[in-house]
Structure formats: structure tokens, C-alpha cells
TrEMBL record:
Residues 5-235 form the ABC transporter domain. GO terms for molecular function: ATP binding; ATP hydrolysis activity. SMART domains: AAA. This is ABC transporter ATP-binding protein. It comes from the Bacteria. It comes from Segetibacter aerophilus.
Amino acid sequence: MLPVIKVTNLSKHFKDIVAVDNLSFTVNPGDVYGFLGQNGAGKSTTIRMLLSLVKPTEGRIEIFEMDLFTHQKEILRQAGAVIEKPDVYKYLTALENIQLFSKISGGAKLTRSQLLDQLAVVGLQDRASSKVKTFSQGMKQRLGIAIALVHDPKLIILDEPTNGLDPQGIADVRNLILRLSKELGKTVVVSSHLLSEIQLIANRLLIINKGKKLVEGNASELFDPAETLVELETLDNEKAIQQLQQSPWSSHLQPARQNTIVLKMDKADIPTFHLELVQMQIPVLSFQPRHSLEDYFLQLTTSNEHVAAIAN
């Protein structure tokens, strides 16, 4: 299976600032590809390079097996994107907006019925005649996605599509992304720092920090039950760490987080660990097994210093 996107050794420097640092990754056909990182990690810069809005300092971008900078027009005809908040005309209706963007997209001319169908895809068919100034931010976001779909692209790139949305708006965009992938067969790249949302929709993930790739892979592999994190708070964490360092659990210790001790283990070992804490007479205030994208992300981006350093 040939990738839709292949990025090789991509870097972008803004004078002395390295925004993206030797980044390589691939997006396969049909992926909902979660592109994750904290604010300032280099996500938006990478997205802009994928759309040829920013020129790389180094590296290569291939989309649909073509070099982006020698086949730019051909590639962009097959791609749609929403970068941050969609730029729509608030004094026009939803239908008038999509009609306008359809005309300037360069794609096939769509009938009114076809444009209404596009609004139906994003759940706005009942508001086709409403002025956009009456829309919630979530509705504007869905309209922006409808506009990005107007030329029927194979690839959709969404940069922080749920920024500023309320819980209902976030759920609406999430469900729309799943529909684009499962029902319409689109390849979707979603850049976000909302880890819990990406966990619900992405089948593959890329996590970057300070412009560098930390990990890339299938979501199902990254969240192996054998890699469960246990977060522990005791009456005396320093003393508890010393005890754990002298036990068979010492190899399971991970970098601490705020007021908690963290261990990594197989989910099946948790009952035994809990029992041995009692036997070691460690006074436990809280005991929380966690296995989520947020925990995995924090584990990767936390300082590499071992928990043992805290006990010194």
C-alpha cells in the first residue's frame, strides 16, 4: 500500500528558531491520522508545509506519490484543508458561502442540489438558508469542512478543528471526521492538542515535541495493555519510592508527575502490585491505573530523568 503522504527529513528554521526538526512520517490511504503535540510543538508549521503555504528549510514532501513543490497544483486539487478557524462570510448564508467557494475552487461546477448534499454531509442542510452570523462556532467549523469538501478531495487536512468549541461542537466535529473516513473513504489528517478527542477517532498517530518526532504508529499498538501506567499517591512519596526501589517493582518506576509516583506494568499484574503495597505497609492515598493517550503523551514528553532522582 503506497502512502498518501510521505514526509522525509523535514525541517523548518525561522532564523534561530527550529520549528520542525528532521521530521519523517507517512500517512496511508483511509487513515484518520492524529498529529499530536503541545502548543508550539511544530504541528501548524508542518501542516502549512504540507499545504505549500510555508517552504521547508530542508526535507522532502510527497503527496499522492508526487513531489509537492514540483506538482503543487495537481496535488492541491485532490486535497482540502481547514486551517484553524474557517474563513467564511458571515453575512452570506451557508449555501451562498459554499456556492462562492465552489466557483473559485476550479473543480467541476456543482448544482444547487449537489451543494445542498455537501451541506447535508456536515449536518447543515436545515440551515442552508441561514446567515452564517447566526451560527455557533461549531457550525462554522462544519461549514468550513463542507467548503473543503466541495471539490471532492481524497485528502482532508484539519488543523486544530475543535479549538474553541463547546462539548457539543467537539462531538459534532468528531463524528463528522469519522464519517468522512468510514462512509466517504477520505484520508484525514487531524492536528490537535486535545488528546482525549484524538484517541476516539485516530487509527494511527504521530506525536511530536519541540519539532521532533517522538513516536509514530498504530493506536492499537501504542496502547498495549502491557504498557498500563499506575499512578500512586502516598503519605510519604519519598519513602515509598525508596521502598519500591528495594523491591521487584523497581524496574517498573517511571518519571514522577507532580505529587504522584508512576509505574508501568501489565494490566494483569495490577492486583499483585496492590497486594504487595499492603504487605510493604505503604500508606496509599490514591491508586489509579491509567491507559490513555494523555498518559502516554505525558510519559513521552516528561523529563527523561528517572524517578530515583527524586529520592536523592
